[in-house]
Amino acid sequence: MITGKFPSLRLRRNRKNDWSRRLVEENNLTPNDFILPIFLIDGKNKKQSVKSMPGVYRYSLDKICLVVDKAIKIGIPMVALFPYTSKDKKNDLGTEALNENNLVCKAIQIIKKKFKNDIGIMCDVALDPYTSHGHDGLLKKKYVLNDETIEILINQSLLQAQMGCDVLAPSDMMDGRIGEIRKSLDKNGFKMTQILSYAVKYASSFYGPFRDAVGSKGLLKSDKKNYQMDFKNSDEALREVALDIKEGADMIMVKPGLPYLDIIKLVKNNFKIPVIAYQVSGEYSLLTNGVNKGLVDKNVIIESLISFKRAGANAIVSYYADKIDKILK
Ligand code: PBG
């Protein structure tokens, strides 16, 4: 036998048997890792499919408890509410955001009344579902105004907190909004309302199907590049996160997900704060269409989801969340 020709260290030893692979696995997924986005729509008895997102629906409020009940049974810790707003309720200023009878406010109350603290509720703080131009804030000559927008976001936050929202998630990317929102929450008796800052949100083309889901598709004038981040940058992401932590963020969102695993890892390594990854609508649709068309095996879904954990994410916002029990089986 020729010795010295072959390695004495064989990493394949640990991989030989299934039990051994399970023994040495470094990451895994459980329902605890997921946040389920739910799209809301006016009307009764509606479960309306979102064309660009196979397997995703908009639900009317009378159906919402069924969806949440299922999420609780699966073991998902939190849902995120997103409203489909009809055109007649949108305007330049996004005033529907401050209507205490809007879809999100009603949904929070319904869910909290029925399920108490069995599940957390997260709500976006941003104006885009409500503005006629589709931007996250007030628009002046194609520029989204920062400080004027924050004034409204503070009120939107307070309103959602009053309704019973557990986790406010500013997704607007205005400078300084986390600090202002934290201050006004504290002043108004909402010391314990958590803030999950979309600190790192890129101006991305992966959001397309979401805009269809919330009814802002086709409305968006120009793009969101004067407030959302440039996807060519990563140092800048760390500056965004540092500021939001200083201003009082409890958790940090990185969005989109799969093309930004490097950012998730950077943020986690530098700040040791809970990091949430958002597997956005475009990622979901691409993967799902690929699987449905038989172009790739359905295991691409778990492989993609595990990559978030490997990168350091504590949890994942995913449109697969309500199917995760089946996916993991
Ligand atoms: C709005 C918002 C967006 C998403 C979540 N909140 C879209 C946008 O910024 O245009 C996208 C989510 C997804 O694509 O799944 N502030």
DSSP E strands, number: 12
- Please write the string of helix (H) and strand (E) elements: HEEEHEHEEEHEHEHHEHEHHEH
Determine Rg (CA atoms, Å): 21 Å
Strand order of the largest sheet: 1-4-5-8-9-10-11-12
First-last Cα distance: 45 Å
Q: Number of domains in the coordinates?
A: 1
CATH topology: TIM Barrel
Output the CATH homologous superfamily: Aldolase class I
CATH class: Alpha Beta
Poorly predicted parts = none
What fraction of the residues are assigned to beta strands by DSSP? 15-25%
Q: Please describe the biggest sheet, giving its number of strands, its sense, and whether it closes into a barrel.
A: 8 strands, parallel, barrel
Bound molecules: ligand PBG
Architecture overview:
The protein is of the alpha/beta class. 36% of the residues lie in helices and 16% in strands. The protein contains 11 helices and 12 strands. It has helices at residues 18-24, 64-74, 103-115, 146-163, 177-187, 208-213, 235-247, 261-271, 281-292, 299-311, 324-328; strands spanning 34-40, 47-49, 57-59, 78-83, 120-125, 139-140, 143-144, 167-170, 194-201, 251-255, 275-278, 315-317. The strands form 2 sheets. It has an 8-stranded parallel barrel with strand order 1-4-5-8-9-10-11-12, surrounded by 7 helices. A two-stranded antiparallel ribbon has the order 6-7. The chain starts with 17 loop residues before the first helix and ends with a helix. The structure holds ligand PBG.
